[in-house]
Design a protein that fits this description.
single chain; translocase; 14 helices; 4-stranded antiparallel sheet; Alpha-Beta Plaits; Rossmann fold; alpha/beta; 6-stranded mixed sheet
């Protein structure tokens, strides 16, 4: 009985730009017949995701190490780290596809993996690589995916125009996916994840392999979802993506949390000053000359990073070394990662 009630709360509902659209108000029986009911008032949990001391050991290797964090409903939370940091393993555990070795996980108020099937009814997933059916059209991909949620053909077809509009693919509805550009495929994958109008979206490297204009289009679509009250868990190794999109983020290395907080707060608290990047010459030799005038120095490969509020003095000293190239800029999350780990992010 209890499980049936939970199923009704999490059952996918009709997606629309306006949740109180005129069509829904004028014909409430339509939603009941298709089986897509609005959740009960105030039934949505305030925490969309809650991890408590979660550890995952795989083949005697600790992939996730005593990790704890919470994601509030309606925010974009980022998992930031290089390949191998544990991001994909975390998403698999959230979906009930992997069982943690220790700790507790709650998703949309439900324990996972115990009630992962119920939780997944309120989740949309965009995997790192497109898993669209290349021989189907854009419309057919949406139709087939909706059936996984036991939605009727009529209900899915009613949703398709709004999904195509969201993905800016109205003119491509009857085009085979194999003929779409990379950016179009990613937008379709994102729109497909909205078929069940999920409360939570889990996005695993959603802009991998895209050129800058296509990445910006995806970011624009994600912002529109946040405005509509969706919760987003974003895993990425792209620092600019995390800085632009996330309300808060967790920096991971080797399955451990090494920092957590709003991006700008992390930059201010951990770096707190502008950066001069120095290219050319011997970084070790140059660092000896400028060290008295900087707050901190980092060397990565052949690049010298000077963290300083005295940029004029540093530049004057650097003029002693002919042929150097300098780049002065504000601090960013890449600097945070370099400071915390001693190395730049591996793309």
């Amino acid at each position: 009985m209890g499980e049936n009630m939970e199923r009704e709360k999490l059952r996918p509902k009709t997606i629309s730009t306006d949740r109180n659209s005129a069509s829904a108000r004028s014909n409430p029986e339509r939603e009941i017949k298709t089986g897509h009911l609005e959740p009960e008032p105030n039934s949505a949990p305030t925490m969309a995701i809650d991890l408590q001391a979660v550890t995952m050991i795989y083949r005697e290797k600790t992939v996730v190490d005593s990790l704890s964090f919470g994601v509030k409903a309606g925010e974009c939370f980022g998992l930031l780290g290089p390949n191998g940091a544990g991001k994909s393993t975390i998403t698999r555990m959230l979906l009930g596809m992997a069982t943690p070795s220790a700790g507790k996980i709650s998703v949309l108020g439900l324990p996972v993996p115990g009630k992962a099937r119920l939780a997944r009814a309120g989740i949309g997933v965009v995997s790192q690589f497109d898993n669209l059916d290349m021989e189907f059209t854009v419309r057919e991909n949406l139709l087939v995916f909706g059936r996984y949620f036991q939605m009727s053909t009529g209900a899915i077809e009613e949703l398709i125009p709004s999904l195509l509009e969201f993905a800016q693919l109205e003119a491509k509805a009857d085009v085979r996916v194999s003929d779409l550009s990379g950016g179009m495929k990613r937008r379709l994958t994102l729109a497909r994840a909205l078929v069940n109008d999920p409360q939570l979206l889990i996005l695993d490297e959603p802009t991998t392999g895209l050129d800058p204009p296509a990445r910006h289009q995806i970011w624009e679509r994600l912002r529109s979802l946040l405005i509509r009250g969706k919760t987003i868990l974003l895993t990425t190794h792209m620092m600019d993506e995390a800085e632009r999109m996330c309300d808060r983020l967790c920096v991971l290395e080797g399955g451990r949390m090494i920092a957590e907080g709003p991006p700008l707060s992390l930059i201010k608290d951990i770096i707190g000053c502008p950066v001069i990047e120095v290219y050319g010459g011997n970084p070790d030799e140059i660092s000896l000359i400028v060290r008295p005038h900087v707050e901190r120095i980092e060397i990565s490969g052949e690049t010298l990073f000077c963290y300083t509020v005295n940029s004029d003095q540093v530049r004057a000293k650097l003029r002693e070394f002919p042929g150097l190239r300098l780049l002065e800029r504000p601090a960013n999350l890449e600097d945070v990662f370099l400071r915390l780990t001693g190395r730049e992010m591996e793309k």
